[in-house]
Every structure is written in C-alpha cells, then in structure tokens.
Write a structure and sequence with these properties.
The protein has 15 helices and 2 strands. By secondary structure, the chain is mainly α. One of its GO terms (biological process) is phosphate ion transmembrane transport.
Length: 494
C-alpha cells in the first residue's frame, strides 16, 4: 500500500514537471514566433551580400558593393511587405483569393515581371532627380546612393510597421534628393522633376479614385439596380471583362515589356483594343453558361467577377515587378557601375544578379511581412466585394494609361489605394442619395442625427488621414533621413 502511494506521488510530481516543461515550450514558441520573420529576412540579407561577393569578385571596391547589396536586399524585402499589398489587398478583401493564394500568385508574377520584363536601363538615376556630374567624385556618388537606398528602406519599413501603404518609388526619390542636397547643395536637384512628382501625390489617388468610382457607378446602375440582375449581368459583364483585358493588354505593352520591345502609346492602345474585343466575344458564352441557375440577387453576381479579379491581381503584380523593382534597385545598380568602372554620369545598366536580389527580396518580404498591409488595404479602409475590388483593379490599369497619354507621373501605390477610397466614397454618396430619395417618397421616415450619420460612414476616416499624412511626408522624410546618413557615411568612412 505504501509503495502504491509512493508511486502515485512520484507520477503526480512527474506530471507537474512535464506540465511546467510544456508551458515553458509554449511560452518559448510564443515569444520566438515574432522573431522568425526578421530572422529569415536577416539570413536573406546576408546571402545577398555573399552573392554580391561571389559575382563581383575581389576588387578594391568589393566591400562597398557587398554592403550595397545588403541594403538593396533590405529595400526589396520592404517593397514586398508594403507595395505588393496594393495589388493583392482588394482581391483578398473581396474573398476572391485566400491570403495564401494571394501570396503565392504575387510571388510568382512579381518575380516573373522583375526577371522577364524588368527595366534593363535606368536612363537617369531615380528618374533624373539629381545631376550625377554635380557629385564631383565617384566615392561621393557611391555614398549618396548608399544613403538613398538605406533611407528609403528604413522609411518603408516604418510605414509598414504603422500600417500605411506608401510609394517605394517616392521613397527612393526622396532618398536620392536628400543625399544629393547633402553632397552637392540644392542646385544638384532637378526641381521641375520634383514638382511633377509632388503633383502626382494629388493626381494619382484622385484619378484612380475617379476611375474606380465611375466603374462602380456603371456596375450599380446597369446591373445591381436592374430588376433582372442576371440578364443585365449577361450583357454587361462580358463588356466589363473585355474592357479590363484591353486595359491590361495596353498597360503591359506600354509599361511591362520595355525590356523585350519598345512600344509607343498608340500601338499599345491598338493592341489593347484588339485583345479587348476578342475577350469580350469569348466571354459572352462563358458568362451565359456560368450564370445559368443563379438566383436574381446581388450575392449571385459575385461569382461572375471572381476569376477576372484574380487574373487582374496577377497582371498587376507582373506589371509592378517589371516597373517598380527596377526603380528600387536602381541605386544599387548605380553603385555597382560606379564601383566597376568609376563612371557615374551615364545611363545605368541593371545586372541580372541585382534584379534577382530584387525579385527574391520582394517574394520573401511579401511572404514574411505582407499579410498586415494586405488585410489593411483589402478590408480595413472600406468593405470590398468582388465588384468593388474589380473596379479598383481596373482603375489601376486605366489610370496608368491615361497618365502616360497626358504625360503625368503617377504612383501605382497611390492609384490602387486611391481606387479603394474612390469606391468607398462613391458608396457613401450613393447611400446618402438613396436615403434622401426614400425620405422624399416617405416624408415621416426617420432622420439620422449627426452622430448616427458619422457612424454610418463607409470609409474609415482614421485610416484615410494616416495614409494621406504618410504620402505627404514620404519624400521629405526619406530626404532628411538620407541627408543624415550621407553625412555619417561621408565623414566617418569618406
């Protein structure tokens, strides 16, 4: 009996010890989980540096290129964490894609865009923000580009942390401007170019929002508010998908295939028109078949927009990879060229290994840190469904084409987020209009007070103000940070 009691106590003690170890393991896993992403990111940055050492070889400037490659990898990680959310957020918010599916599609198409159609030449550093010859020496130029790269990456990292989607291209532009001013004074900056970029802060979101709101108006008036929604959808959805196909064909021909062939605006529009008409004809029987048996209600319409929305998200990712990655790794390419040849005044050719760092960095950044911004853009600014998200995606392609036609600089980030705002504000206006109309028909209908009207706003004003503020201070913040980093590098290492 005594032995049985002793064994029982021993087992109870063992169970308590095992429970403590289990709790310790759970606590360790809980604490270490947030460190997994940064740990993998750090490994990638180190590998990028080792890759640069392997490709660049043992030369007098090899250490500078290795450091620059690490900064470039860090920048690419931040692009993946922040910029790509604008392409995938609407599709995820509309439940057309799962988070895992969105990340997988974005990784494939962003990488393909960067490696297949990525810009092979940045004709002037960061779109002609500074005059390279004003830098004086190659060493000064290299410090300026290092400062620009690091400052842009740090700013985008901070924006991602606070949940604000910002333009990575504008961050690089601000970084280059700040380092240029610190190195050679205000005269080194091309102020006409900077004024165009400042104008894009307003043009991009307003144009993107207006185009998205227009197409939501078309969908609501021609399909949703019709008595027979399914019959209206059979007529209009093929037209809308055809417009989307044509817009993306023109967009990709104009912006995404520069490395393969040079296509002017008129030719790209002709290509888009031909493809758009072809897709419209193909979609007529497909939509008719897909709509068979659907109930005459709004929920049924979501099915018809699901696949076009997924395709548009993939194409946006391809075009983003082809354009924005080159802008982000441009300073790294400039450092490589200046270190190899000492020439920093000519057009900069982007080596393939630099584009690989950009492509893989975007993929890792999106996988590790992207979900936060994807959720914010997709669901926290305003509620999206497949029709609304489709309008956002379509506005991104059309706005870039219109801006190219007008010769206006635009930001893909600002267009996409502006499209989300445009859809939300149009819904607010439309809801108010319908309420006023109903109140005219039924005079004694309840009238909402100011507090209730604020509660019924369909766009979250806190996110709106945070994002606008982040957009406005991106260039000056990155410029100031870059100037400080340049002074440190130039005085400590120069």
């Amino acid at each position: 009996m005594t032995n049985d009691t002793g064994d029982q106590r021993h087992l109870e003690t063992l169970d308590r010890d095992l429970a403590r170890y289990s709790n310790l393991e759970l606590a360790t896993a809980y604490v270490s989980r947030p460190l997994v992403g940064p740990g993998i990111a750090l490994v990638f940055i180190v590998l990028a540096g080792l890759g640069a050492a392997l490709f660049f070889g043992q030369t007098s400037n090899s250490m500078i290129v290795i450091v620059a490659a690490c900064f470039g990898a860090y920048m690419a990680l931040n692009i993946g964490a922040n910029d790509v959310a604008n392409n995938m957020g609407p599709a995820v918010g509309a439940n057309a894609l799962t988070m895992g599916g969105a990340i997988a599609i974005a990784i494939v198409f962003e990488s393909a865009g960067a490696l297949i159609a990525g810009g092979d030449v940045v004709s002037t550093i960061a779109k002609g923000i500074i005059a390279p010859e004003s830098m004086g020496t190659a060493t000064t130029f290299i410090w300026a580009m290092l400062a620009a790269l690091l400052s842009a990456a740090l700013w985008v990292n901070l924006a991602t942390f606070v949940g604000a989607p910002v333009s990575t291209t504008h961050s690089v532009v601000g970084g280059v401007m700040g380092a240029g001013i610190a190195a050679a004074g205000f005269a080194a900056v091309s102020w006409p170019t900077m004024s165009k970029i400042a104008a894009s802060w307003v043009i991009s979101p307003v144009l993107g929002g207006a185009v998205a709101a227009f197409f939501l108006f078309v969908i609501k008036s021609r399909i949703i508010y019709q008595d027979d929604k399914i019959a209206a959808a059979r007529k209009w959805v093929p037209v809308l998908v055809g417009i989307m196909a044509g817009a993306f064909a023109s967009y990709l021909a104009l912006k995404g295939l520069k490395k393969i062939m040079k296509i002017d605006l008129q030719t790209s529009l002709m290509i888009g028109a031909a493809i758009g008409v072809g897709v419209w004809l193909v979609m007529i029987p497909l939509i008719k078949k897909q709509s068979e048996g659907l109930e005459n209600r709004n929920k049924s319409l979501k099915v018809l927009f699901g696949i076009p929305l997924v395709v548009s998200a993939a194409l946006l990712s391809f075009a983003h990879g082809a354009n924005d990655v080159a802008n982000a790794v441009g300073p790294l390419a400039a450092i490589v060229q200046a270190s190899q040849s000492g020439d920093f005044t000519q057009a900069v050719s982007i080596p393939f290994w630099v584009m690989v760092i950009g492509a893989f960095g975007i993929s890792f950044g999106l996988f590790l840190f992207g979900p936060k911004l994807i959720r914010m853009v997709g669901g926290q600014i305003t509620k999206l469904n497949p029709m609304r998200a489709y309008c956002v995606a379509l506005s991104a392609a059309i706005t870039v084409i219109v801006a190219s036609w007008l010769g206006l600089p635009v930001s893909s980030t600002h267009i996409a987020v502006g499209g989300v705002f445009g859809v939300g504000f149009y819904r607010e206006w439309d809801a108010e209009r319908r309420i006023r109309k109903a109140r005219q028909q039924i005079p004694d209908r309840a009238n909402y007070g100011p507090e209730e009207r604020r509660r019924r706003k369909l766009v979250r004003r806190s996110h709106f103000m945070t994002i606008i503020a982040a957009w406005l201070i991106t260039v000056p913040a990155a410029a100031l940070l870059s100037a400080v980093i340049f002074f440190v590098l130039n005085n400590v290492l120069g």
